[in-house]
Amino acid sequence: MSRPSRSWICSPTVSSESRERAAVEDRAQRFLDDLRDWLAIPSIGADPEHHGEVARSALWLADELRRDGWPTVEVWSGDSQGGSYLPAVHACWPAADPEAPTVLVYGHHDVQPVDPLEAWEHAPFEPTVVGEQLYGRGASDDKGQMLMHLLGMQAHLAATGADAPAVTVKLLVEGEEESGSPHIAALLADHTDDLACDAIVVTDTGMFSRDTPSMCTGMRGMADAEVVFRGADMDLHSGQFGGAVPNPVTELARMLAALHDDDGRVAIPGFYDDVREPAAAERAAFARLPFDGKAWLSGPAGGSRALHGEAGWSTVERLWVRPTAEVNGISGGYAGPGHKTIVPAEAVAKVSFRLVPDQQPVPVQRAFAEFVAAHTPEGIHAEVHFTGSGVSPCASDVDHPVTESVRQALQAALGTEVLYSREGGSGPEAAIAEALGAPLAFLGVGLPDDRIHAPNEKVELPLLHRGAEAAALLWRLLGERRDELKPGP
Ligand SMILES: [Zn+2]
Prior knowledge:
- Helix content is 33%, strand content 20%.
- By secondary structure, it is of the alpha+beta class.
- A hairpin with a 2-residue loop joins β4 and β5 (133-135).
- α2 crosses α15 and α6 (184-190) runs parallel beside α14.
- Zinc ion binds at residues 108, 141-142, 177, 204.
């Protein structure tokens, strides 16, 4: 007899009529009441005037966790160097068995600013239910999805009848994610032992669509730069000097135009050296997503007029698994009313790169600096400035037991096949995975039309319930696969 196929190995051991679902439904009203309380706290991290509210949001969550019975609950707001940061909440619920694997759930409780306020149909911090949707800043990103894990834990315990989870579950709910997680490295360094885990479950992402659920398998990284090209000490008369000295705007434009070849590939030498192609299973799943290019151009892409990008890759692949170089802005010389005939003294461009595994920001910065030097003609003085050390990309291994289990739990909770997708944006996930030396998987139920970071943010309550059910099932499934998760002796 042949070996059982993969799909046989991965077939769900849970039915859609699960006890977890019943436990979630029993608690749905309290969940909604609690989420509305939390969403009413305007924890806008970007605004110093709201930092007291970020602290209040952390304390609210800590109280909620204690009320649910989490044995360890802490609020962290300072590092060992004496620096302070917006409060993060940590909790731990150990498995009864000390040998069980440990999973860390990462998310955040700070929210984006709300302007323009007049564009909101319901006040952003007066959470409002309309049908099955809950409106409010943070409903989807990320308070709704974090509170989903508290409900998931309650449902897991109720469904198993145990007073401790099947795996040790830890939470890290950051307060600075929307500000770019500036203190995450210090926080991780100070709390490496508290956060030690065998796997990380990130809950701050979305699915392809309501009708085509998917699980995120990665996020891109980022590096950005400012380039200054200088010619003369001052703007020069174009009649007296033009044609006889280099023009910094022209030379900068020439350098920027050389960033891509005719196939849309980034032309910086070595740029693709570390790029890891996605797994065949991921590409096959991406190809099955019902991506409608025309609708995407006229909708999310803001009336863009054509699809464009690296040859040989689909649009979703260009967004998710291919690295990019973008000119974010360019300035120099005179572009005001009328005309001013000059050879400008200076030109400036901002350039950013989205990176994919296994590219790292610092080598990309270095390669870009060399590229600029190679494209700086005689008579131009070039400077390249970088903002910090960038953000690393991250991706799940789709064959890892945690990734497989998240997918299986989502499929059981949603009652349908779950494909793969990725996020084109960047976050602190790679830094967390690297600091803790653990693999990561994504359990997120946001939708592209949740309007995160925009007015009228909302979340689909039924999806939060299914997500809580998936989390509850996940702890059970990981308990069953414990031997695959713990490193061998
Ligand atoms: Zn978020």
